[in-house]
Amino acid sequence: MGVVTGDGTVGKALTVLDQVAGMGRPVRMRELLETSEFPKPTLYRLLQTLTNQGMLTYDTEAQTYAPGIRLVRLAHVAWSQASLAPIARPHVDALAANLREAVHVAQIDSGQVVFVDKRQASTKFSTLAQAGQVAPAYCTGVGKAILAFLPEEDLEHALLQQAFHRYTPATHTSADTLRAELETIRAEGIAFDREEHAAGIISIAAPILTPGQRVVGSISIATATNRHSLEGLKAFRPALTECAQKIGAEAQSWQPPSLP
Questions:
Q1: Within a domain: residue 3?
Q2: Which of 43, 80, 132, 185 is the most exposed place for a label (fewest CB within 10 A)?
Q3: From CA 19, how far away is CA 251, in angstroms rounded?
Q4: Do residue 124 and residue 58 come from a single domain?
Q5: What predicted TM-score, i.e. pTM, was given to this entire model?
Q6: Residue 67 and residue 26: Cα distance in Å, rounded?
């Protein structure tokens, strides 16, 4: 949950909206109040405002709040205008169909990665990551692939936003160890998630670079350790990097909506 800044009522409302969306299910006010940084009257007023504006919907029988239909429209506009997904979609579709694996496309925002698309040509295995989901950059393949190619100033800013929480024994817990790996990723052009965010989940990721070497996102194949090994994932590297290059070439004039 975000920390209230000097953004006034709008900032507070967005904090509540993030909190509701982050629950992943309809939620009652008392549940929100347990972790909210706002007193009950303020929280209630913000929930009412968001509901009146269609950003949230309220179920009178269940007495629960959930993301509203207005968000669907806004999300569609954001997906088409502010995300790399429309440019990447045909290339990602082809890659997923060719490899029969789940393919993810991600961008960075405020030091975290946002999965902007997921294509899955097989039902053999479904990854946890879904379009719209946010994940840490420092312990995911897609995140490290982007961080490694950021300009130094942007990288420094992004590193300051990492929590370095230890999710598994393989998770980086400091910027120093992460920086060392980022140098390797920059040299090799590929990144791996070695069960750093979730035990049993691994991935191989490639940065999406424009011809001018500006990083605009990343692409990955994630799987479970009972299906593939890290060594086995390397077989996907040629197809993955080729796909990333095709997307990057088309994204030359595309501008990410914000810096990390």
A1: no
A2: 80
A3: 33
A4: no
A5: 0.74
A6: 8
90 and 216 in a single domain? The answer is yes
67 and 87 assigned to the same domain? no
Q: What is the DSSP-derived secondary structure letter of residue 27?
A: B
In a shared domain, residues 169 and 246: yes
CATH of the domain at 96: 3.30.450.40
Look at residue 126 in the predicted model and tell me its pLDDT.
Answer: 52
Query: CA geometry: angle at 117 spanning 114 and 121, to 5°?
Result: 140
Domain that holds residue 191: 82-250
DSSP, res 122: -
pLDDT at 121: 62
Distance CA 129, CA 115 (A): 7
What averages of pLDDT result for each successive group of 10 residues across the chain (260 residues)?
Answer: 57 89 88 92 94 92 91 72 82 92 91 87 58 87 97 95 95 96 97 96 96 94 92 96 95 64
d(CA 210, CA 247): 8
Report the alpha-carbon distance of residue 192 to residue 145 in Å, rounded.
8
HSE-up of residue 114 (Cα within 13 Å, Cβ side): 19
| Region of 99 on the Ramachandran plot (φ > 0 left; ψ -120 to 50 alpha; else beta) | alpha
Please state, in angstroms and rounded to a whole number, the distance separating the CA atoms of residues 72 and 91: 25
Last residue of some domain: 25, 50, 73?
73
Helix axes 152-160, 175-188, angle to 10 degrees: 140
Q: How many domains does the chain have?
A: 2
* Amino acid identity for residue 77 in this structure: V
Q: Are 85 and 116 in contact (CB under 8 A)?
A: yes
